[in-house]
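> tool_call: predict_assembly(chains=three)
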Amino acid sequence: MIEPIVTFQDVHKSFGNSKVLKGIDLDIRPAEKVAIIGPSGSGKTTIIRMLMTLEEPTSGDIIVNGTNLWKMEKKGRLVRAHEKHLRAVRGDIGMVFQHFNLFPHMTILENCMTAPLHVKKEPKAEVKQRSLEMLDRVGLADKVDQYPSQLSGGQKQRVAMARALVMRPKIMLFDEVTSALDPELVGEVLQVIRDIAKNDDMAMILVTHEMDFALDIADKVLFLDEGVIAEQGSASEVIEHSSNERLQEFLHRFRA
Amino acid sequence: MNNWSWDVFVDAFPKIIDGLAITLALTIVCYVFALVFGFFWLFIKMIPLNSLRWLVTWMMEFIRSTPPLVQLFFIYFAWPMVPVVGFALDEFTSAVLGLGIHFSTYIAEVYRSGIEVVGKGQWEAAKALNFSKRRKWTKIILPQAIPPTIPMLGNYLIIMFKEVPLASTIGVAGILHIANSYGAQNWTYLEPLTIVAILFLILSYPSAIIINRLEKKMNRRFDKKETLTRSKGATA
Amino acid sequence: MVLIQAIIEIFPDLTKGLAITITVLIGAAFFGYLFAFIAGLCRLSSKLFLRKFTGLYVEIFRGTSLIVQLFWLYYAIPMLFGIELGSNWWAGVIAISLNYGAYMSEIVRGSILAVAKGQSEAAIALNMSRYQRMRFVILPQAIRMMLPEFGNYSIQMLKATSLVSLIGMEDILYHGNIIRSTNLSQAPIVYLLVLVFYFILALPLIFLTRKMESFSKKGVASG
């Protein structure tokens, strides 16, 4: 049995009075591809945002690589993690956002190079070469000196993926990465994700509405409903053999 | 702090307060003048004559980017000396003209921005509904253009209030002028100038808060993002 | 002809004040931007004391008149503390820079807050530290938003430098006043020329501001 790279233990999250997540337990093993599906507002995005340290859980533990993400030991007690601890733990995690969030004041190449250069302090020549390779891999080798505003949505999202990949994360998070795209641009982005899923051995967590795609590449599918994981298992288990009524209803609506 | 004297403070305070009426009156009159004169700029720029528009644009730019203090001096000291058209003006009137004209160029911009807020679709809608010109302005354009400008205009009232002490340089007996005279007579500027500063703070700070609230309310009503108007457009 | 002759006579006298006007402007702009950044960042600090303290500074200087502040610094401060600010040059520069620093700190704060939230989230996802997020992602975009405003405020500061003539500095306006007092009938030409002088100084700032306006439209994700 391989040790999980990410573990959620009874994680709750509330925003004000509304409880978004009501006890999430979850194990993700290295190189495992996990798809999170479910109706909007069910808390899918919140799960990966907490893992990326963009949102603090209300209670419960998130363990990354054997280290508690949001808590640290101080004088024998577990206290709320400070920035330095978060930075040390989240270094293995990368994320791609729904709205790309490219840095508009940097060229495509600079977007990819800034973090490895300044965060990981790697040599410039090496970072540049790796960035160019990644941009080539996502099919944007000819755009490296352009600015994000000059690209289409699909191209922006591919840059965002290259930018995350250059950091060599062990865990990649995808937050509804095709939701903000025009329908005709969805394909090129999914193609890149498929390529990553096939060729890279990092763990991937995808929050997505692209049902068929998720089922195609995911080792494990989670169905999130009203703040809890209502169903989980392999793609075929969840899709074809589940008796969960809400899941069937949800799938039916998406397949229609 | 050994030079601070409460006796001087108590002695100077009522004298300076006496000047408050002039300061406030000058503020209001200057402001009203600027509001009216702002329309003048707006209308003159609407005349479809390119050379005129160009000239007016640069005139406004000239007035806006040169010191109001010099403009004040020009009107008070120089205008009476201008051949043929020149005539002498008293201090108060000079201050009204000098500061009023200076600020009218800013006020005109506020009016313009208000009209620009009204989207193109609204004009087209008015056209499509076959409104008369008058009804178009009174029913559609102005009701939308005016509210967003109210906080900006209020803001300029506060700015005007803070600029009015410039008039003390030509002898308008507002609070700053009285404080300076008191200082010169009694050889102590500390207390009188501190009183002036406190008076300004007491009057402008609450007004600024009210304007800020008003602006937030307007932004909510018109579904706009927070603007920086409160900090914009200060002049000296 | 008389007019041209008068201009030729007055012009060189006014240029004597140019150095003072320009050095006061440069000094005031330098310290003004500095105060603006320090105060703007302090108001976004997580330390309550820093926030309140800088808030007090901003409200006091925005709530009172520049001319009152100038007189207060020049006349009252030496009386209050028994210290001189060194010279009237420093009194002028400090008054103008503290006043406009307070106004511009709001621009700094507002611009930083206006950078879209997704930008700092993306920077977190790339594991940048708080400092790196500010340095590489937030500030470069916020500064683009600030530039046109800073340009506008430089013009305001140029106008404000004319106040230093009131505390005995020999700037353009001061020399204009001197010429007028010796020849009252020349007052119109003198003040018109003074205004033209200021306008010529303002022109590069006006064009720079317009340029920065178009520059700042690019390269910012705001929301």
